[in-house]
């Protein structure tokens, strides 16, 4: 049994659960059809279970790109019977999934972005710098690209760009150069070798501060391997499109890059776009959404103390107030 299985059995606690439930509750209304909750990142099904338990009339459509996550949550949610539909899908495939299921709209949507605790805890999946394993990092193990292919195959400039942009790593150039030197000797194939290499590539004085120096490199590779940012950029507008008036979305982000995409997309849709030279706001330029949060909401100190994963979370939420056209 892996660490992840133990965590699952110990009852993992979903991040900012009470706030997510509170924000989504008003969107769950019976309007002649059963209300639909879309969980775009089902994971272990913690948020989904709480939503289904809180709203007996609610139907769940749960997506995950990780088949292990789907198997686990299928077991966890079995007692809700045919109220649950689980799909192995990347969340930017949402329009096709809804089409296939014949579901015209979703009333409440949640995206709890990034990797799950079991993905991090199962060392052999290669996400963790603290556990020696093959450099994999695929959330969906049916996909081709792995972290080993990125590290051993990408041109040096591309590697440096990924480390700089996705890891916000100031020593990107040095680390990329060290990777290229090392892979010329032998392919870099393990998390431990990569973590060691990063540590020796950065200036000695900076090794002592700011946690494990490999953290940013691992984040960058994970984002690249899973195409996280491009997929989120496509998926968020698709999810917003699926909400009827009164429908709500909540997004939990764990790093500034995905939070920025969320913030900008919501800001664009919640703004009055009447040209400034006009004296009165025009109805057709009124916002289609309203923000439900002021800036990004953070978890309580008590939550971050008991659940370290919640430490970096930022929550944003919005409600549709006007039809698309
Ligand atoms: C933080 S976990 C979700 C935890 C969940 N809210 C719970 O309560 O158990 C994120 C999940 O989203 C999945 N995921 C990440 N990116 C995805 C994508 N682009 N499409 C579908 N699933 C994705 C991951 O495989 C992971 O299982």
What do these coordinates show?
With 325 residues, the chain is an alpha/beta fold. The chain has 14 helices and 7 strands. The chain has helices at residues 3-9, 17-24, 46-54, 67-76, 94-101, 117-121, 147-153, 156-167, 172-185, 191-201, 215-225, 228-241, 256-269, 301-306; strands at residues 36-39, 59-64, 84-88, 108-112, 248-253, 289-291, 314-320. A 7-stranded mixed beta sheet has the order 3-2-1-4-5-7-6, sandwiched between helices. Strand 1, helix 3 (46-54) and strand 2 (59-64) form a beta-alpha-beta unit. Helix 8 (156-167) packs across helix 9 (172-185), helix 9 (172-185) crosses helix 10 and helix 12 packs parallel to helix 13. S-adenosylmethionine is lined by residues 14, 41, 43-47, 63-66, 69, 90-91, 112, 114, 116, 139, 231.
> DSSP strand (E) fraction?
5-15%
Q: Helical percent range? A: 40-55%
Report the C-alpha radius of gyration, rounded: 21 Å
Number of domains: 2
The total strand number stands at 7
Q: What's the CATH H-level homologous superfamily of the largest domain?
A: Vaccinia Virus protein VP39
**How are the strands of the biggest sheet laid out side by side?**
3-2-1-4-5-7-6
Distance, first to last CA: 52 Å
CATH class descriptor name of the largest domain: Alpha Beta
How are the SSEs ordered, and which strands pair?
Blueprint: H1 3-9, H2 17-24, E1 36-39, H3 46-54, E2 59-64, H4 67-76, E3 84-88, H5 94-101, E4 108-112, H6 117-121, H7 147-153, H8 156-167, H9 172-185, H10 191-201, H11 215-225, H12 228-241, E5 248-253, H13 256-269, E6 289-291, H14 301-306, E7 314-320
Parallel strand pairs: 1-2, 1-4, 2-3, 4-5
Antiparallel strand pairs: 5-7, 6-7
The structure holds S-adenosylmethionine.
């Amino acid at each position: 049994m892996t660490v992840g299985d133990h965590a699952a059995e110990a009852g993992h606690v979903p991040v900012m659960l009470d706030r997510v439930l509170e924000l989504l509750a008003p969107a769950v209304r019976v309007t002649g059809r059963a209300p639909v909750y879309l969980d775009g990142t089902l994971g272990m099904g913690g948020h989904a279970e709480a939503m289904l338990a809180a709203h007996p009339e609610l139907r769940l459509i749960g997506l995950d790109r990780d088949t292990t996550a789907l198997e686990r949550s299928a077991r966890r949610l079995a007692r809700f019977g045919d109220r649950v539909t689980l799909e192995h899908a990347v969340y930017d495939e949402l329009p096709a999934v809804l089409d296939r299921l014949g579901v015209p709209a979703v009333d409440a949507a949640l995206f709890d972005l990034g990797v799950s605790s079991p993905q991090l805890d199962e060392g052999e999946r290669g996400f963790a710098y603290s556990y020696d394993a093959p450099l994999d990092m695929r959330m969906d193990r049916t996909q081709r690209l792995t972290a080993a292919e990125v590290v051993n195959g990408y041109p040096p400039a591309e590697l440096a760009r990924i480390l700089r942009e996705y890891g916000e790593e100031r020593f990107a150039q040095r680390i990329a150069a060290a990777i290229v030197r090392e892979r010329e000797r032998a392919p870099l194939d393990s998390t431990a070798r990569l973590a060691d290499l990063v540590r020796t590539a950065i200036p000695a004085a900076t090794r002592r501060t700011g946690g494990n120096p490999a953290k940013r490199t691992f984040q960058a590779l994970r984002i690249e391997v899973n195409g996280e940012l491009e997929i989120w950029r496509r998926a968020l507008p698709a999810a917003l499109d699926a909400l009827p008036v009164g429908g709500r979305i909540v997004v939990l982000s764990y790093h500034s890059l995905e939070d920025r995409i969320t913030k900008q997309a919501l800001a664009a849709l919640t703004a009055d776009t009447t040209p400034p030279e006009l004296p009165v706001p025009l109805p057709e330029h009124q916002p289609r959404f309203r923000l439900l949060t002021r800036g990004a909401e953070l978890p309580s100190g008590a939550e971050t103390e008991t659940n370290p994963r919640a430490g970096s979370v930022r929550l944003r939420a919005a409600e549709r107030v006007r039809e698309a056209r």
